[in-house]
Amino acid sequence: MKETVTDIKDLDKELLGKLDEHIATLDLTRKEESLIPTLYKAQELFGYLPHNLQWHIARQLDLPSAHVNGVVTFYSFFSEEPMGKYTISVCMGTACFVKGADKVLDKILKLTGTQPNEMSEDGLFTVKDVRCIGACGLAPVLTINEKVYGNVTPDDMDEIIESYRKGAADDKDS
Amino acid sequence: MIKTAEALNKWKQTLINERAYRLELKICAGTSCISSDADLIVEMFEKKVAEHGLNCEIEVVKTGCFGFCGQGPILKIEPDNVTYVRVKLADVETIFNEHLLNGRKVYDLMYKNRDDEDPAESEAGMAFYQKQLRIALRNCGEINPEKIEDYVRNDGYKALADVLEQNDPEALIKTMRDSGLRGRGGGGFPTGLKWQFTRASKSDEKYVICNADEGDPGAFMDRSILEGDPHSVIEAMIINGFAIGASNGLIYIRAEYGLATRRLFTALQQARDKGLLGENILGSGFDFDIEVKLGAGAFVCGEETALIHSMEGHRGEPTTKPPFPSEVGFRGKPSNVNNVETYANIPEILNKGAEWFKSIGTRHSNGTKVFALAGNIRNIGLVEVPMGTTFEEIIYDIGGGIPGGKDIKAVQIGGPSGGVITKDKLDTPIDYDSLQEVGAMMGSGGMIIMDEDTDMVEISKFYLDFTQDESCGKCTPCRIGTKRMFEILERLTDMEGTPYDLELLETLSKNVQSASLCGLGQSAPNPVLSTMKFYRNEYEDYAHRRKKTAYSIDPEKCIGCTKCKRVCPVDCIDGKVREVHVITESKCIACGACYDACPVDAIVRP
Amino acid sequence: MKLIDKMVTCKINNIEVTVEQGTTVLEAAKKANVDIPTLCHLDLHELGAVNQSANCRVCVVENEDRGNLVPSCAEKVTEGMKIQTDTKKAVMGRRTSLELLLSNHPKDCLTCVKNLDCELQTLANEMNMQEIHYTGEMMSHPIDDSSGAILKNPNKCIMCRRCTTMCDEMQTVGVLSPLKRGFDVVVATAFHLDLGETSCTYCGQCVTVCPTAALAELPQTASVWRRLNNENRHTVVQVAPAVRVAIGEMFGYEPGEISTGKLVSALRRLGFDAVFDTNFGADLTIVEEAKELVDRIENDKPLPMLTSCCPAWVQFIEQQFPELLDIPSSCKSPQSMVGALSKTYYADNVGIDPKNVRMVSVMPCVAKKAEAAREELNQDGQSDVDYVITTRELARMIKEAAIDFRTLPEDSFDDILGESTGASTIFGATGGVIEAATRTAYEMMTGKELKNVDLKQMRGMEGIRETSVQVGEKTLKIGIAHELGNARKLLEDIRDGKSDFDAIEIMACPGGCIGGGGQPYHHGDTSVLDKRRKALYAMDTKMTRRKSHENEMVQRLYEDYLGKPGSQKAHQLLHTTYSAKARI
Ligand SMILES: Cc1cc2nc3c(=O)[nH]c(=O)nc-3n(C[C@H](O)[C@H](O)[C@H](O)COP(=O)(O)O)c2cc1C
Ligand code: SF4
Ligand code: SF4
Ligand code: SF4
Ligand code: SF4
Ligand code: SF4
Ligand code: SF4
Ligand code: SF4
Ligand code: SF4
Ligand code: FES
Ligand code: FES
Ligand code: FES
Q: Which domains occur in chain C, in start order?
């Protein structure tokens, strides 16, 4: 079925309310300058920026949807796709690269069965390759949500990924 | 509220006098160290101190980065002047009982310059720090960045007070010009001159913009400064505002820099609460406030016009210069854009004088530069050295040389816009002009050391992958040109290239360089051209498809232990126990498993 | 802010030129008779749109002192500047940019709608581009023909951004934006929606400036040929006023050449069963609209009344100002009126089954294609208009049929829907509709003859014009806007209660339909629009009847068929309704 971007029924009412409250605090005489902060807020609330949410924001800020979508797709921080429970960000900065971060990334993609920026089928992982996260001293480095793992090797990944899988399963059981 | 310069000074004196701790425990709370549990270590120390009722005697200070991140978490005890490295949670107990309670130093936790040397008790004994001179990083690792008191105690906001008292923007700009400070964000443009231009632009409104987008993948000095000493940047921005006649400042900070952003917000609020930011600063009648704008993940937004468009809520696409931001900037008004490190230098320059700053460094490159030292090097971290220091000094004296007994091959400087310094040029002094002479550039401070095993074509492909991915896509040469360059490099490394590809790559590189709209495209070919110039043979090998892709075994070294044979995933290693093993090269998939497994380094990499 | 008139002197290829400060290198080079190729650059400042994003890099030249390349379209001349256009570096820079563009372009010129009218193709020829050295991945996006009006082929897009400049800055609709970044960048609609699902008005202003076939009209010539070849259908055609002063350009005539007679001849040769004049519909529109205006004024109904003959503008108000839908006139557009009558009045008259009548209209406009598809515009389920082809498409059909346009005899329109007055002629220019309406309203309201029909205060090219006419006791306050950005300003005032106009004319295109999205390409030369506009006014003065209500066939229509202006039957056939649409 074709999507209708003007249909926002499937968006959580409460979160939408919070977003609109946030928008109400912004200086809308500078609606363009308010866009990126609003997108931040929206992604924080919803986890990602589906098309109908972008349309909603466009209407709230009185901006063309194309402008909003142009901005969203320009910046790598914004995601139009849902994200896994755990975001694995593998640093592909130079320091990490020369220490074999690409091999670590390959291994993780294999373990999660995903492509970069794509959510794994079980909804657990989204793997991203990111630029220097400022912990080059520990290269190669990756983060899983907030936690930083330094000096990782491809072999370490089996155990780390498994521990998250297990953690998620435990969460479900309890 | 501090309402006068005098009051500020008085407050500082009080802060100095009130300080009555017996011991100060400075623990690095930079990103790198936190990821190795530094914050938990801090908590444990705090708990221990409280348990023992030593709150009045021992202060636990969470500082910014010490620079020596590879050895983190780092802990420094003053006034004993002892530094411990690689501190683990389990070491807290020992340090507390031994050092803090009983005054016995824990030698096991000290850094050794070489394995066979005695441990170095303090920074003074650590080769890593010996050739460094910390101006921009002066407070990092020294003060608690979340306490304005710490900053003020170390001369913080004194320069601002003086500037406001003198009330002479022209003289201030002259001092800046005399100091010889040049922009540390990559371009190296004289800061005083930029201020002068922005001052000269007539407008009812102007903006001061701090570029904290730090895009070079492998550089993190701006982050460390904001995490470790945010007030120095804030102070400099206010001074900048006074110099050019602006009352609004903006800091554009990278999305990924959560800790830095939080500390920045804290610092801004403290400065506002103390009357050092906002209306009528120090009773001078000068108003200035600062807003933080978050980036959203785009390298090109480090380019100043793109940065401005991004702050305005647009796609971060650069526009052609002129007009420069100093004429047409944020909201169309004259704006002065400077880099974080540039700003961090300024209060110190004003406190110590232009002459002092000018005396450091070389003729046309004054002061110091911070580098993020990384790659195949023993001591990884942030180093700040006087301009004119040579690569050799950084690599061998500060960096401790190449690990694993390997030889150095090259240094990559300037990140994705930079070039390589070959082994025979390591005596080049690091300053703007000398770097240009050897075909490299200062850049923003990434310095990657590469050992003999490094494949230079892969390195240039790595950088190009980065730039073509980060290209904003606005102009043709960069949008399509960098893509085509990347495709050629891929063809080469996939063994599908031809010698003609090298010709194409070179011509295309030059044209992308000359015809692109902004600095990103103009400098994207630098890593390619520079490696092509110095390591042409490696490109030729790929182009003639004679690059070896298989591993092999050195028969002289092999002891026949069978370890490699057992790990090879495609079973392409033959050999009997205690006999020399052989790899069938046509089957080898170059996974490197055997290389890691061999106990005697008999496996030869392709 | 007043610009300081300072002169600066520079050297271009060693030729000294002195120009005003703020002049670009490109303009200065023109003065020195030095030719520099351009592609993305587009200067329509008279129309309020300048694309100076300096992105194609096909115009780079060398700044001799600094040794770097600068984009001549955007770089301003400075005192003492030395520019060299023919150094190896400059030539190679330009060539490489073009070559790279072509390396990412489907080079199927032979069957391309822009063949021989394409700026990219012309440039490739001028730059002697015979080999593409760089090959690799090419863009691959679906082609979008969903709107029925515009054909969008992103694979032919060179990211020049001319379209976004028009749509954002001039029209303030903002349908298009570059999405993504790097090589993946594509100028597209939000979320890659089909154009038909967006707030596109189909004004076609993006089409008028697109240098390639990335944006073009959706061709309907094949369907028209099929109809013409079908013996069982009675295929009739109508031609809009602005077509006759522009189509000649496609056959080597000067812009503004009036080719009505040849045009009618050509249409007959193509095989149409009857050739009608949209001008007839325009006269009819005026009579109905003037009647509506008088009614609104006399009965205190909502004012101002807005003209409704431009479908792009109608689409715009439905999407952007849904709260104002009670003010546009309910009159259908002339195209639709002629269409409706061809299937009723005309069919009755000649005694054929309306079901077999097919109406093709030739329009300067791409929005008319979408208008024809509007559900509201039909009689008993049969659309008023079946096919709409643009001026350009008709010219192509004439060429295809190997008709030598230049030697065609003059012919005239067919009866009963073919007569027109000077008033309807000027419909094609901004201000023309309201001038025509005023001529009729004046006489309707006062019962007196309007002596001076040339209401010159309503003419011109300013984006927004305000004027008033004394009509008996009453002063009619009249507003005129062309380009949707200007329309937006007037509408915002109306919405905010800051406006006291009685009637407003709005046209979506710069200059009105003479600058429509279906007209021959002006390639950035806006003097073309002016010439077309002047030709329309010249035609008006040559006409003996210059007021719509004096059109004898219109009078006959009322007598024989509709009764009085505003009658119930007139309403049924000639009026329509509007509905709010989502803004995307
Ligand atoms: C592609 C590109 C990326 C850049 N990234 C940064 C950056 O991350 N941080 C920075 O301070 N300057 C960056 N710059 C340089 C800025 O455009 C600008 O020159 C600088 O912020 C000016 O400050 P400075 O004079 O203090 O160096 C970049 C330039 C280009 C062309
Ligand atoms: S050089 Fe690259 S980043 Fe800069 S404007 Fe052109 S496409 Fe964008
Ligand atoms: S590199 Fe891998 S595939 Fe090749 S021989 Fe060694 S273990 Fe086998
Ligand atoms: S691991 Fe090394 S020593 Fe052992 S068999 Fe293999 S090559 Fe020989
Ligand atoms: S757009 Fe132009 S260059 Fe491209 S295929 Fe069509 S005619 Fe040829
Ligand atoms: S120019 Fe060449 S390719 Fe084009 S139609 Fe003629 S013969 Fe064919
Ligand atoms: S047709 Fe008009 S409204 Fe639609 S995209 Fe083009 S310029 Fe915009
Ligand atoms: S669609 Fe046409 S006008 Fe728009 S950017 Fe692409 S080539 Fe340019
Ligand atoms: S002004 Fe004329 S050509 Fe333009 S959209 Fe309206 S009706 Fe069509
Ligand atoms: S390069 Fe990976 S953390 Fe810096
Ligand atoms: S982060 Fe702790 S020393 Fe750098
Ligand atoms: S015409 Fe100048 S850059 Fe395109």
A: 3-102 (3.10.20.740), 112-131+140-217 (3.30.70.20), 232-574 (3.40.50.1780)
